[in-house]
Amino acid sequence: MMKTVIITGGNSGLGYACAREIARNDNWHIILACRNSTKANRAVLRLKEETKSDRIKALNLDLADFSSIRSFATKWSDCDLPPLGALICNAGVQFVRRQTYTQNGMETTFAVNHLGHFLLVNLLLSELIPPAKIIVVSSDTHDSNKTTGMPQPYFRNPDLMAYPQEDPALKNKNVGELGRIAYTTSKLCNVLFAYELNRRLQQAKKSDIKVNVFNPGLMPGSGLAQDYTPMAKFVWHNILPILSRFIPNVNTIETAGEALAKLLLDPNLDEVSGKYFSGFKQIDSSQESYDRSLAQRLWNGSIELTSLTPEETMLNAQIGR
Predict the structure, then answer these.
(1) Quick one: which H or E segment has residue 281?
(2) Mean pLDDT throughout 203-220?
């Protein structure tokens, strides 16, 4: 039976490489859910040419705009496509030279990397036709015990993660450090969200929807450096890709895309859920990511921040358990 997979941020980088791998499988129709429609449509044309597949389509989605996410969910339900079988929450941003906020006044990194995907998944849960899979892309920067060159995550009340300008603990941080903290914290939130989603699906007797987390490793050349300085961008796009063959935990975009696609396509992983994969290997995530109290605080706070109603998700009844 053919099904559809939605990939957020699928027009470039990891999402594009993953889509290319999946497009070679005849059982999947692919939706690239992207903010920039022009780039997304170009990516669709490239993918069709590279894979000789016509089962690829783009739909507009701005994860920084909750109204856009709700509109996307409505458009999806009106699409004449194979049933929804998977969601790959891949899109992500990082800002290190400027602080940016959404139309709602929320810090953009937290809003896009976590809240946007939280809302999207909840809105589409009822559309998923089991057996189904949800894959959330995180990063090893979520783990404060690993040496990544990034500051450790700073988890606190979700309101303060959405509105960090109100957090007195951050008032003396420079813009670059604030941006990196926002990024690593959002990546911890990705793991907490995925694990809590898995638990709530099991409580709701929806265990035929599997949820896992993916860490692609450091991927030089990806779009994550869009807000870097010109020199840093040059190194990121031209020097580090060459060195990636010799540095541990550094992957090419193509290799990471293959590993991400494997989580969807490999039948040996069809019964695996609530796990963390670094590349092709299943490993433990950070100790903090297994803290259920943090996950519940994040879930309940995300409900409030996104104004998610009981009518919009099958899991609202599970809040607080």
Answers:
(1) strand 281-283
(2) 89
